[in-house]
C-alpha cells in the first residue's frame, strides 16, 4: 500500500538501513518474514519500519484492554430518606452511603415529604446538613441541598485520596495538641 518510490527504512532491531527504493525495502522485509509498515507518512521521504504487523496490532489491543481494566466508572447511587426517620434506619443508610463513597461512587441524598410533613421542610435541610457534616472527611458536596416540589436533594462525591490522607493527618495532629 506504500505508493511512494523511496522510503527511509528502519529494520526490526531498530537500526536505520537508510533511504532505499520501496520495492527493495519490501523484498528485505519479506526475506526476514516481516511486513513493511509506514510509520511516519508526512515526512519526506516517509519512514517505514520492518515489523510483524499482526503482533504489533495485538500488542496495541492488549495495552488498550489493560488500560480499560484500570478505569473506574463512577455511578450515582441514591439514598432516600423520610423526615421522620428513626436513628437506627438513619445509621443503616449512612453505612451504605459510606460504602458507596469509599467505592468512588457519587451519592444523591433525597429527603421525601408527604402530606403535612410539607409544613416542616426545615427538618429535611437539617438532615442533609447532618449528613454533610458526617461525611466531610471522605466526601465533598457537589450539589447543595435543593428543593424540587416534595423533595430536597443533595449530591456528594468522594474526595480525592490525597485530600483524604491529608485530612486524616490533620486530625491526628489536632489530637496530639
Question: Topology, please?
Answer:
Layout: E1 6-10, E2 16-21, H1 22-32, E3 35-40, E4 47-51, H2 53-69, E5 76-81, H3 87-102, E6 106-112, H4 121-134, E7 139-148, E8 151-158, H5 161-176
Parallel strand pairs: 1-4, 5-6
Antiparallel strand pairs: 1-2, 3-4, 6-8, 7-8
- Helix-strand sequence: EEHEEHEHEHEEH
CATH level 4 superfamily of the largest domain: Translation initiation factor 3 (IF-3), C-terminal domain
The class by helix and strand makeup works out as: alpha/beta
Sheet-strand content, in percent, reads 25-35%
Provide a compact summary of the structure.
With 177 residues, the protein is of the alpha/beta class. The chain contains 5 helices and 8 strands; from the N terminus they run E-E-H-E-E-H-E-H-E-H-E-E-H.
Question: Would you write up a description of this structure?
Answer:
With 177 residues, this protein is an alpha/beta fold. It has two domains: 6-66, Roll (Ubiquitin-like (UB roll)), CATH 3.10.20; 76-176, Translation Initiation Factor IF3 (2-Layer Sandwich). Helix content is 42%, strand content 30%. It has five helices and eight strands, in the order ββαββαβαβαββα. The strands form two sheets. A four-stranded mixed sheet has the order 2-1-4-3. A four-stranded mixed sheet has the order 5-6-8-7. It starts with 5 loop residues before the first strand and ends with a helix.
